[in-house]
Design brief:
By secondary structure, the chain is mostly beta strands. It folds into two domains: 182 residues, Elongation Factor Tu (Ef-tu), domain 3 (Beta Barrel), CATH 2.40.30.10; 47 residues, no CATH class. Helix content is 6%, strand content 33%. The chain has a six-stranded antiparallel barrel with strand order 2-3-12-11-8-13. It has a four-stranded antiparallel beta sheet with strand order 6-5-4-7, with no helix packed on it. Strands 9-10 form a two-stranded antiparallel sheet.
Length: 248
């Protein structure tokens, strides 16, 4: 699917065309979906307001496996597979995964990506059910889970925002980390001391994001603001959990 970052003009009066079919799910059964980050663009409102959004190709997903609290797993969950535009060839599927799909997939073709989602007690889903992007609505609060961009080996200035030393009068302490512990006691480096090392490539969860637009026909989800990860990386979009107000 070709996508070019730029300007996307969508009026607020546009109505979503929801895909209605025999296998459409109830939106209360599952609260998330798997997708890929495509890029960033802008949405222009009729009054000229510009909204920066991240475009995610969310789904379609298919239920590959179900787990129940009454079974050996001990909890209610479903395993979703992301249906890619380029199908996975059977020769590229390992024997263990091929057996997994034959055992639990109910004849569903193998998928490259599998993720598990918890279900509330009492909810039931069947193998082969589809999960679509139309479970989200404009203005809904969501949280996005992704993997941040890897930065490689980084120093303390870049990784932990350390201050640098003076750069004049022959100073040899420009970007050095400085002291990392005492000599006599404890005579070791305390665990957790901020130092240079691998930066990025970590699981990041961003909460409090808002859905700007939903395109059910093209399986596109436009979220206001930035989303962790590089273009083309996998993300998980979940509905934000409702927080109970604390009573004094």
């Amino acid at each position: 699917m070709g996508f070019r970052a730029g300007r996307l003009v969508i009026s607020r009066s546009d109505t979503l065309k929801l895909a209605i079919s025999n296998w459409q799910l109830e939106i209360d059964m599952i609260n998330g979906i798997i997708g890929r980050k495509i890029g960033m663009t802008q949405i222009f409102a009729p009054d000229g307001t510009v909204t920066p959004v991240t475009v995610i190709k969310a789904g379609p997903c298919v239920v590959v496996q179900t787990k129940s609290s009454a079974g050996p797993d001990g909890y209610d969950a479903v395993q979703l597979g992301l249906v890619d535009e380029r199908p996975l060839k059977l020769k590229n599927v390992s024997k263990p995964m091929r057996g997994h799909f034959e055992k639990t997939g109910g004849g569903i073709p193998p998928t490259r990506v599998l993720k598990e989602f918890r279900l509330d007690s009492g909810d039931s889903m069947s193998v082969g059910d589809k999960v679509l992007v139309d479970q989200f609505a404009d203005g809904e609060m969501v949280e996005v889970i992704g993997r941040s961009k890897g930065k490689g080996f980084a120093g303390t200035v870049k990784r932990h925002n350390f201050n640098r030393g003076p750069e004049s009068h022959g100073s040899m302490n420009v970007r050095a980390p400085g002291s990392i512990g005492a000599s006599a006691y404890p005579s070791r480096v305390i665990k957790g001391t901020r130092s240079s090392g691998h930066m990025g490539d970590a699981r990041i969860t961003v909460k409090g994001l808002t859905v700007a637009r939903v395109d059910a026909e093209k399986n596109l989800l436009m979220i206001r603001g930035a989303v962790p990860g590089a273009f083309g990386s996998l993300v998980i979009v979940k509905k934000a959990a409702k927080r109970e107000k604390k009573t004094r």
